[in-house]
Amino acid sequence: MPTSDQDELPLTPGILAPVAKSYDLALKHYGPKHKAVAWRNEERQQRRFHIFVGLLAYDTARDDITINDLGCGYGAMFDTFKELPQFRDGTYFGYDISRSMIAAAKKEILDPRAIFINSHLATEKADYSFVSGTYNMKMQAHDRDWRDYIEENLVHLWSKTRIGLGFNMLNVQSPLREKTLFYADPDHFIAFCEKYLKGQIRMVDLLHPNEFVIFVRK
User: Residue 158 pLDDT > 70, yes or no?
Assistant: First the structure.
């Protein structure tokens, strides 16, 4: 059962080591491009980022929102937020388990509003937290072990979130299947969020049947 005290978890859980290695190799091969973070094309990558922007619609009067991006890769999501009026004086925290990805992000993005941290957990409290694709690649991990990791991770991220959390997952109904990817039941994760996050929950299925996005607001 998930707990809220995630600081006791090891800095880098063993289940994530093969994933970090895979992303290190992909970055070395492709460079800081969409294929390095397992996107078939940049258009779909950007489409998901813009879906996440919808969670900010309630804060149009602000210009200083803070954002956690868990699994930021080379920082591609930052470009989606950097010109938003809500983010004019904001701060973006990008986290990734791949040291190579963090190094690439720091090299590519020099905007002082962006801070990149090598971690599998959010270390800073932010208004909004996003998880884009981070839960999809499980490599050889057993589905149940990977699901347990996701649930623990979500509870911790919620504890670092002031206003809203958005995350996406591959849908178990998807006709596309790869052995190294995790496919989730949206009903299970909606029920999980209702029980453990206890916020206002909305599922976005604009990427149906391959993916779903869940928004939770406090």
Answer: yes
